[in-house]
Amino acid sequence: MENRLYTSQTSPKGVDCKTIFPDTPCFCTHRYKQHKPGFGVIPKERPIKLPCRAPNCKCESYHYVPLCCTSPIRCHCKHTADEHAEYGNLVCKKAGCTKCTGFKSSYTCGCGAPVSQHTMTVETAEERSARGHTVTEHSPYIVVGGKTG
Ligand SMILES: [Zn+2]
Ligand SMILES: [Zn+2]
Ligand SMILES: [Zn+2]
Ligand SMILES: [Zn+2]
Ligand SMILES: [Zn+2]
Question: How confident is the model at residue 2 (pLDDT cuts 50, 70, 90)?
């Protein structure tokens, strides 16, 4: 439990817009719990990468894509997230789609900033409290965003 990581999607202003739970799907369509669950020793480099462990999935690190009204949000190229490569630059795999330079959506988050400007934050309890966010005993933590400290 000491090495537990806290994962959230953070707005450009440092607000946690989305808390990632074990069942929260990744861009690669697999769930958070199918990604690397933790580390014996927390890596020094940031951001911490949480690669997917599902067979044949090349997802390099968990990244959340919000759903809008139960349907997935779309890229500028008009295709959905699961039609894009789950690794590298996240370019579109759809035949005939040549304009895509990597999944990017203009979908606006509840905080007012476009989702594309948000970052995945994977952090230790220490780093999390240093940012002024609540750390709880429970995994995953219960407190959701809205606090800038
Ligand atoms: Zn993934
Ligand atoms: Zn995956
Ligand atoms: Zn496309
Ligand atoms: Zn695209
Ligand atoms: Zn947001």
Answer: low
Residue 21 maps to a domain: yes
The neighbourhood of ligand 5, an ion, using CB within 5 A, equals 11, 17, 109, 111
- Quote the ligand 5 centre to 132 CA distance (angstroms): 17
User: In the chain, what percentage of residues exceed pLDDT 70?
Assistant: 85
Ligand nearest to the backbone CA of 74:
4
Burial (0-12, 13-18, 19+ Cβ within 10 Å), 20: buried
CA–centroid distance, residue 52 to ligand 1 (Å):
5
Domain that holds residue 140: 1-66+111-149
- pLDDT on residue 145: 40
For the beta carbon of residue 113, count every other beta carbon within 10 angstroms.
Answer: 15
